[in-house]
# Entry
Amino acid sequence: MSLRIAASGLLILLGLSTSLSAADKRQARVERIIDLPSQSLGSIGSFAAAEACTAGNDSAIAYWIEGWVLGNELYKAYIDPATQCPSPYPFTVREINMPMKFDAAVSFTVSVDVESPDNSIPLCLYPGNTLAISSDWQIDVPGPGGYMIWIPLDTPIVVNGPFFAGFFLGSAIDIASNPSVYCDNDPRECFTYNIWDTTIGFVDLVNNSMFNFPGRLAMYVNGTTGGAGGTDCCDITPGTLLDFVTVPIGQFKDLMFTLNNCGGTTLNGTISETSPQYSLASGGGSFSLAPGQSRTVTVRFEPTIVGVYSCTIWTGLPQCSTVIATGVYGSSEPAPQIVLVNPNDGDLLMGSVDLWAAEILGSTIIDYVSFEYSGGGTFVEIGRDFDGTRPLRDGVTAAMAGSGYNWDWNFASLAEGTYTLRATVYDTLGRSAYATTTVYLEPTPPIPRIVSPANGDTLCLAETFVLQCSDEDMSNIQLYRSNALANYSIGLAAFDEHSVGDANGNPSDGNPAAAGEFGDYYSAPVAAAVAVKVWFDRNFTLTMREGAVQLSLVDVAERLATAFKTRTNKGTYDEDLLTGLTSYSLAHGDQLDFVYRRTPDYFELRTWAEEEQRSVILGLGGAPGLWVAVDGFTGWINPDSSYSVSIMNPISGAIETASMRLSLGASELYVNGSWHRVDIMVSMLAKAWTVNRTLVAADLSGADGWSINWPPTGLIEGSRYFFTAIGRDATSYRGSSTVLLEYSCLSQFAKGDYNGDGASDILDLYVLIDVIRHNGVAPVGGLGRADCNCDGYINIADMVYYINYLFGTSSSPCY
# Structure
């Protein structure tokens, strides 16, 4: 870019040094405003307030720019008093101000000038002929802060239209003072310039090869209005942004805008653009608009290569200089949108969390999802998931393996407190969207994990429960017990998925997918509906009511199918089930909370469903992928090491017993003649529900580690029990863990050995006699072992039986 003669002459007149190089400008940086200029330096004149007006170039100060200002340089700003002053022309320019910020006291030389606009290139106005110039002023900055530096012209100049104001820093400025200039957040080109080298010439501050300002330079003029001139005014309808959205390959699209002369003077300009993907189908080129006239321009978007493209269309008018066009070519994919499935806003998170996000518009060109956190400042990336593969459980076809876009985040290294989590989705065209949620992180949660005994262990003698907890201010741990029934049922209703999903007006014809209906895909709505009914039966009636109307299971299933997008997708995705349950509950009393766990085992499932009394549904992989509701549990471990789980099978519509086993590190459920991997379990729990447990022991201090020793009392041989450790910290946060144990002493001691010495003899008879006379201690291993004859009673008949055993006339005692 060559420097115009008039500007060169001015530079020579001002003695501008050409010793600085462009590289010196590359250290500039943007700082968001926290220190607005509030002090004035230089001389501010006084004139009639009624006629006085201050006009500026920027919209509003938003940033300061550090590392750019060096001194021995000239700044220019396009000023149109009509934007701030009523009836401004003729306008008398008296003073010019460029606000600056400093970190320390400093002195330097300043002068100002006024130039007419150079209209030789209609697309972009430049400073032209010099109209007025001031003497040099010595500026003494007394200390750090932002300053309004007002410099008067030696002789005020009268203008009849827009002009360029200049601010010349006539000496180098000590870099220790960190001189900075201000700008707004509207980066329009051809409004503000800088020159520090006659070889380089003017650079547009928002469009140059060194550093682009995020907005127009702040510069102002003080003056008086004459009120006689006409006013330039233009506007663009429907607006200055043309969004072509998406254009398929091989096609083009036209959009129009209209330029209107809303002022009292004739507007002259040239409409042009330089993007190869766009063209002006009509209305381009030079124009002259009298007051009240308009000009319509047709912009055509016609690329040849797939991508996202933008274009700037220039009008040649400073009042409304540009129109921006954007569009996507070669893809019908929508711009991505994202929601956070987990966690929810306001959640208390303990130690770790499964971050889970879902793209909700169905784009197939997602590149990745980024997860981040912020403690109030900048966001820090946690991780990126490039694989959003997710299973569709449709009850017909095999479910793909995958967990959607998620990240297992352990935040133990962070400080406790409130954080913002953000998930951002990016597609392959560079488009993005984000969602945020605010949560409270407890990095060292008061969760007393029961290390020993482990799930499935046998309990007999006094047991030491060894506990592990990372919370630094845990106050106490209490151990509770509750019964695990031999046959537990939550009482699910039987419900056939083929009784719903009707599309032809005949709900009793099985609603098959082969006939274009949806019953085959309804395993999720049906399983969720019977799980909701559990809470209705427990007197949380709003879960199945709409006003005064009580909903049937069919009603609930159909509403859930809508919330799950089951008909749209011909099946249900996991994230749609979670978000759909939440939206359904909010519309029906908001009485339920929903929690999920990926790849649960038998003990986690039984703890949720029986010990914590939740209703639970399972998302099964395999062929086909489907959802089932859990009804209960029968017995204990089977000979093949599996367990028996009672489910409501939505395909058969019946309550059935299914085997559950551990295979290759994951649980599987045997349903409809094949094994299905248990990918996820989702629970429903009423917000106002309380679980009753029996307190058995506690540890009130962790000074010597956390452990609880408990001699079993009140337990029945061959029965099973849940033991739940609940911890509380100094802030009253609570956490818990549970193990399921069997009480059995049958295999622990020799039959008839009641004192634990390894032999069955007369000494054991004495123990038995003392027990029967109610003045002795129970046999080692529990009172139940005193039932020698297995009749279910402990009485004198057991004593007679044991005497006969010692004399060889009866078989060994039962235990």
